[in-house]
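Fold these two proteins, one after the other.
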Amino acid sequence: FPSQTITGNFANVIHGLNANHLTDQVIQRSKRMILDTLGVGLLGTSTEVCHKVSQYSKIYSSDLSSTIWGHLDFRLPPLYAAFVNGVAVHSMDFDDTWHPATHPSGAVLPAVIALSEAFPQGKKISGLDLLLAFNVGIEVQGRLLRFSSEARNIPKRY
């Protein structure tokens, strides 16, 4: 249909992505981004802000849980684990960045890992599935930035 909406087109593109779209170059770049983000996140677990959100998040529990990076004995519901781990990454402010200004991996990786840990034992996702989910998250973020007039105005404000 020629009258397909931008949102519909966007959803179709994202829904159509699969592991076959991951070239060797994309896989290698993704692994480097993931390793960098994990390193920065582990360092960030020692920051005051990370300690505060960890303490705050302890009030939440559920049957599903995900690891707080650097603390194998501390698990939270996936939403809060992603939040705490994301704060850890961003608290150091050394995570990767794009132009216009955003930190793609710090927002995507904690969510992808927290969700992957929450899958039942018999339905765990593969490493390739994790790389695909990571790249879909990066792609969504990049496309939303391209659609945003606010993102285009960031360089003018700083």
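Now the second one:
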Amino acid sequence: VFPSLAQAQASVANEVYQELGQPSVFLFCPTEYCSSLCSPSPSQSCYLLTLGQELLPGIGVIWTGPKVVSQELSATLLEEVEGVLQRRPIIWDNLYANDYDCRRVFLGPYTGRAPGLMPRLHGLLLNPNCELQANFIPIHTLGSWFRRELGSCAHADHTGTETAAALGDSRGPQEGSYSPQEALELALHDWVAEINQQASKPGR
């Protein structure tokens, strides 16, 4: 019925999106969801070019970065993806995902994400460790990164000032660029306090 996989997927996604009344959040994960899956590159992928042209503007498109598990994300890559998809991508960040190797748990700080990414993003989702309690540091340091990014955006665009001010009371360094080491130390401090609080409860 369809001349290509991309046109088939876009047609189905558009129909579902419209049938649901065009919700404010509607996410589409493409078959080529990172650079390493694109042929020959994101900007020259016929599949992604078709999706960019055919998907309705309100549909968000998920992207994981250069690879399925990306050690780094750059503004340059996101600009390339935005150009081909005709919309800012939603990053599905697999930095901490361990479902492919449950012998490993990732406890380091959120890192490898260049400063100034937020203007290039429509959203960011974190795929965490399968073990719930192991995600304190990943989520806490992501929060520190987000506050720094939001603060940078507020300086560049006054529309973010109100939200940035509201987050300014949150614990964490507020000046300068994001430091993974500082974010890690803050997260460890808060995690120890949380562990001690849990341990002091009766019956624990």
